[in-house]
Amino acid sequence: MSGLRKLRVSLAGAEVGTLAETPQREIFFEYASDWIRDGFSISPYHLPLAPGLKQETTGVFGGLFGTFDDSIPDGWGLLLMDRFFGARGIRPETLSPLDRLAYVGCGGMGALEYHPEIEGGRADRQWMDLAEVAAQAERIVTGSAEEALPALRAAGGSSGGSRPKGFVAYHPSSGRMSSDVLQPGAGFEHWLVKFRAKEDPEDAGCIEAAYAEMAKAAGIQMPPTRLFDTRAGRFFGIQRFDRKPGGIRTHTHTFGGLIHSNFRHPNRDYQDFLFTVFSLTKDFQQVEQAFRRVVFNVIAHNRDDHVRNFAFLADKNGRWRLSPAYDIVWSSGVRGQHNMTVMGSGTPGTGELLKLAEDAGIGKKRAKELIAESMEAVRNWGAVAEKFGVSRKSQQVVGTTLLSLA
Predict the structure, then answer these.
(1) What's the rounded Cα separation, in Å, for the pair 195 and 237?
(2) pTM for the predicted model, two decimal places
(3) What is the pLDDT of residues 35-58, one digit of tens each?
């Protein structure tokens, strides 16, 4: 897959620009003239809306600008993508970022689409048996070399994160589920369903559902969530905020992609996050909402809080807002540390949270109120866990780590 490559980038049916790769694997992007006239910057910090060729030179994302790297899945989605290419005799190490974007095509997160798509990259619509798909996902994640079923590949080939998961179209009235997330038909909703990773307990989905309930109680803006009951277990689902009824897509940019920070290399502080929220949205209420998420992550022991687990949404006029929260669940972190530090600390407490609030312009009294709201929500862990069927063992494991701030 060598030689000059070009991909057209579009958003909501309009051409945004062109990605090009030279034989030396240098990657360039150029906005389309009509998009410069009528559109907006799809990545305000690194891709200003201006004519001319643009090249990303830091190498953080292999030569891609962060907004395009956001389209490429990590972990689970990348594994399925590699299986697809490997089954066709193409070694994953020979693939360029543009090859992977061509595979993603129209099926990625957010609203950006890439043309032409790789032939066969997007499987045809499949009615899904969630239990069957979950069973194969668990076999693959534990080492099976089998190629993914079309329904699993279609659902999971563009989703990020290390845990196996899939984008699905779900019809709440009939209970039917489809892998067709582009044109699922009337009455279907767009959901992401998470399966179990190798190290996950049987009730992993129940734990995440309980965490979503606590996060809502703490004032955090969450999409609708639910548990899907199958003969293979209960799986956590969260409604996608980058899709609306009628197939309308919303341009989505992760925090890491926006500031060009790779989540695999933890080097960011929540100061950076709150500063970016205000810089991008110019809305202090959204800064408070972001602070709520920091506080909840600290108190509820969500230490997998990396830069790709926060995102921003742009409307058609290029106005940005903080996305609803996602990937909020108990996690121990690497060496017991938060991925993003709070005022330099990987194991922060009240002092660091209050300093962060002060740095962000949140008064001490208001910061204490927000901390108290999260503490009250987390105190209900036992009752919420019972409600969602969390096992006694998991209740104890999680409960002993929840932080009671002085």
Answers:
(1) 9
(2) 0.93
(3) 999 999 999 999 999 999 999 998
